[in-house]
Amino acid sequence: MRYFESPQFSDHEQVAFCNDPVSGLRAIIAIHDRTLGPAVGGCRIWDYVSEEDAIEDVLRLSRGMSYKSALAGLPFGGGKAVIRANPHRDKTEELLRAFGRFVDAQQGRYITAEDVGMTVEDIETVARETRYVAGRSEGEGASGDPSPMTAYGVFTGIRAAVTHRLGKGALDGVRVAVQGLGNVGGNLCRYLRAAGASLVVSDVREALVQEAVAAYGADPTEPDAIHQQQVDVFAPCALGGILNDQTIPEIRAPIVAGAANNQLAEDRHGSELANRGILYAPDYAINAGGVINITEEGKAHYDRDRALARVGEIRGRLLTIFARSDAEGLPTSLIADEMAREVIFAARSGGRILNGSMGRGSQTEKAPGLHLPGTVVQKKSGT
Ligand code: NAD
Predict the structure, then answer these.
(1) Rounded to whole angstroms, how far apart are CA atoms 55 and 264?
(2) Candidate CATH numbers 3.40.47.10, 3.40.640.10, 3.40.50.360, 3.40.50.720; the one for domain 147-339
């Protein structure tokens, strides 16, 4: 595979291939961009079908982390790690500690956290080898599992989308199809139900479906039918790539807003959704609650209420994206990319970082695309 020519390669700063024959660890750490700060992003443990799949995933996920932090106004760059292993079979203490040593060798350029296939306990094991770990459950200022915060952010984002698309200020009577009832999807169901929404749910793990039926009165459906439901909102909270050539024509919801990373199989699918009149909440904008929460962890004492308030700002940020999308006649996915690049570009060229408030009329410069740190970028007059 040619990495530099990969469609997912986006001027990544560094990609490190990590091999530990003793534990069997095969991992990739991708650092996309550190203009705004150290590269923060979780570690995914997944049984990738091929090495190419793992590389494509880590390249795309790490770019998403750069954009996520930039949009949220966080002092972080973007990075991500993937471990090619079965999380239920291959995850040993030796493997996790070997990964921790590779993270440590990055000397703070990359800070890891949990992602799919990783638990807070696993993160504690990694942390025995390195201090460059976030989302810890132990120690001063630790905030624990970020998933409930991610779910809260997605909940506020769904409220924004419902307001914008359906003109409703509340979720009472709104019907949501939730795909994936794991750490985020399960918590999201709780928030939605408490706000009066009704639910259709699916998961490949039947026990989780039955829990949601019992706890929230949700209607179950098959995993391959969840995106076809006649609902107000389709909320993908499982894996990426769910918005593709096959599924998009079958989506009947006017809104897609969920937690999963890399929901668009390819960037062009953002335009496909817009062409069909479906309002898409860009994944890295709506699912930033976890990484926002991690920022609060750096403070002397973790304050959950302060974290919740900051995560709640996702609602306003999405309303800005939707308004700018309408004004410019461009898909929300492109607008979000543009806004994130504006922040990174402004920081790189010595301009102002607008702390996440990048609405129309902002003072940022137009970003033509990302550049490697240290690249000299010509300053332009403001837009
Ligand atoms: P998780 O592993 O706890 O949950 C994922 C769930 O999806 C599991 O229950 C799994 O059985 C289910 N699933 C897998 N394939 C499915 C399918 N085809 N149909 C239905 N269900 C299926 O993961 P999570 O932490 O809840 O994260 C969910 C998504 O949100 C991931 O894409 C993750 O990258 C993203 N995300 C998570 C966080 C976080 O704080 N955990 C933050 C940002 C983004």
Answers:
(1) 17
(2) 3.40.50.720
Counting ligand 1 atoms within 8 A of each CB, the residue from 115, 243, 286 with the most, and so the one to mutate, is 115
Closest Cα to atom 12, ligand 1: which residue?
180
Numbered ranges of CATH 3.40.50.720 in the chain: 147-339
How far is 340 from 334, CA to CA, in rounded Å? 10
Tell me the sheet residues that pair with 77.
39
Domain 3-126 has CATH 3.40.50.10860: yes
Q: Which atom of ligand 1 is nearest to the CA of 147?
A: 40
Position 141: which residue type? G
**Which helix or strand (DSSP H or E) is residue 314 part of?**
helix 314-328
The pLDDT of residue 138 is 60
**Which segments of the chain have a pLDDT < 50?**
352-383
CA dihedral 61, 62, 66, 72 (to 10 degrees): 40
Specify the residue with its C-alpha closest to ligand 1, atom 35.
260
User: Rounded to the nearest whole angstrom, what is the distance from the C-alpha of residue 185 to the centroid of ligand 1?
Assistant: 7
242: closest CA among 178, 315, 197?
178
Is residue 15 within 8 A of residue 29, CB to CB? The reply is: yes
pLDDT at 212: 98
**pLDDT reported for residue 355:** 39
Nearest CA to ligand 1 atom 9: 182
